[in-house]
């Protein structure tokens, strides 16, 4: 019996470039409560963390109750963007082709993301790829990155062993989660953290375009 090979992708900054909508919704949440909006780079730095934790980092002087209210404001703005057709989260070039190649090579596919489950499903349905993934791990259903919980749950759901699992992501949170779960980590250069940060966090390697990925993880 062949071992199960599991490839788990981060979403924001790896599959889709959602930074503009994330920054828009974060700024909307801060503005609603009369707070100075964080710099765009500061918002990019926290993409991938659970939303509440990201807001705590960006607004450290606010009370927990205010952080929770800001999370709701962010989510409301995001939903309004989606409903109005203003949500910007284009796929990175080459991703669909990589899905086909990995599936043909026998890889089981998954996602581990700081998005909510509802948000992730909406993104994948938009591109008609929801059914391509055997496991969906989100920050509202598991402990957030860099805790290994999402990867541990993904392996449990699919029956894959750590030695047969690889995580693909664009932030140090993805890489640290991989290290904590004892699985191989591959960084991508086109996301929200720098290549040298990914490597120093424990990435096995970094790819510079999706087309490199199948041969790298083979």
Question: How would you sum up this structure, described in words?
Answer:
The protein contains ten helices and six strands. It folds into two domains: 5-17 and 90-217, HAD superfamily/HAD-like (Rossmann fold, 3-Layer(aba) Sandwich); 19-84, DNA polymerase, domain 1 (Orthogonal Bundle), CATH 1.10.150. The protein is α/β, with parallel strands linked by helices. 46% of the residues lie in helices and 13% in strands. The model has no long low-confidence stretch (mean pLDDT 96). It has a six-stranded parallel beta sheet, sandwiched between helices.
Gist?
This protein is of the alpha/beta class and 218 residues long. The chain folds into two domains: 5-17 and 90-217, HAD superfamily/HAD-like (Rossmann fold, 3-Layer(aba) Sandwich), CATH 3.40.50; 19-84, DNA polymerase, domain 1, CATH 1.10.150.
Question: Mind sketching the topology for me?
Answer:
Elements: E1 5-9, H1 19-32, H2 40-46, H3 51-58, H4 64-84, H5 95-104, E2 107-113, H6 117-126, E3 135-138, H7 149-158, E4 165-169, H8 172-181, E5 184-188, H9 195-200, E6 205-207, H10 213-217
Parallel strand pairs: 1-2, 1-4, 2-3, 4-5, 5-6
Helix pairs in contact: 1-4, 3-4
């Amino acid at each position: 019996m062949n071992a199960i090979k599991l490839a788990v992708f981060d979403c924001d900054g790896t599959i889709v470039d959602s930074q503009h909508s994330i920054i828009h919704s974060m700024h909307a949440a801060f503005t609603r409560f009369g707070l100075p909006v964080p710099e765009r780079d500061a918002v990019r730095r926290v993409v991938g963390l659970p939303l509440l934790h990201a807001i705590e980092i960006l607004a450290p002087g606010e009370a927990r109750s205010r952080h929770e209210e800001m999370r709701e404001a962010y989510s409301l703005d995001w939903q309004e963007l989606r409903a109005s057709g203003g949500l910007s989260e284009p796929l990175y070039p080459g991703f669909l082709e990589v899905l086909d190649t990995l599936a043909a090579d026998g890889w089981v596919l998954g996602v581990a993301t700081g998005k909510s489950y509802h948000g992730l499903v909406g993104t994948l349905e938009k591109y008609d790829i929801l059914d391509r993934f055997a496991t969906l791990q989100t920050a509202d259903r598991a402990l957030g990155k860099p805790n290994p919980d999402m990867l541990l749950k993904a392996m449990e759901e699919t029956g894959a062993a750590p030695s047969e699992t690889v995580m693909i992501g664009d932030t140090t949170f993805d890489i640290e989660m991989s290290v904590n779960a004892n699985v191989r980590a591959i960084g991508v250069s086109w996301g929200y953290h720098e290549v040298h940060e990914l490597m120093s966090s424990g990435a096995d390697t970094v790819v510079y375009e999706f087309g490199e990925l199948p041969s790298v993880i083979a």
